[in-house]
Write a structure and sequence with these properties.
157 residues, mainly alpha, 4% strand
């Protein structure tokens, strides 16, 4: 097979191209959206978010779990962004994980609804906290990332 951009062609197509047929490169965004393939950027965010979720839910590894500090002012799902002194320090797992977590947590977890007395009990709604199943969180995150990926220009990223 002869590879061109996102499509694989047989050698016969290649010879036809040499005999006068002209093939243009295709944009990859429509193909990724049609077949529901996440871009590399979205795959990175997806895996970092899921690793952070598992670290917070199962407390393993404990060294990373201790590094991810929940914000005491807000609900326990917001994490405190670690202080960094150098731009290079912003490329480590802890910093990136907290930024990605705080960006996507609102889209992944359900909102808690108040009970009859108007009191909101954290975790009272299904999939609203860390007790949510991993598969439901994966599904919601993937759907959100694919939706964001399909927005904007149809051809360019």
């Amino acid at each position: 097979f002869y590879m061109t951009c996102a499509r694989a062609r047989t050698i016969d197509h290649h010879y036809n191209e040499l005999s006068g047929k002209k093939f243009d490169l295709e944009h990859t965004k429509p193909l990724f959206n049609e077949y529901k393939i996440m871009s590399l950027h979205n795959l990175y965010s997806y895996h970092i978010f899921m690793e952070t979720f598992k670290i917070m839910k199962f407390f393993v590894p404990s060294s990373l779990n201790k590094a991810l500090k929940p914000c005491p002012r807000n609900n326990k799902l917001t994490l405190i962004i670690p202080l960094v002194k150098l731009d290079v320090s912003q490329q480590n797992f802890e910093f990136k994980a907290v930024k990605i977590w705080n960006t996507y947590k609102e889209f992944v977890f359900n909102k808690c609804v108040p009970i009859n007395t108007g009191i909101i009990i954290p975790g009272s709604t299904e999939n609203s906290d860390l007790s949510a199943s991993t598969s439901s969180i994966k599904h919601k995150l993937k759907c959100h990332l694919l939706l964001q990926q399909s927005l904007g220009d149809k051809l360019t990223w």
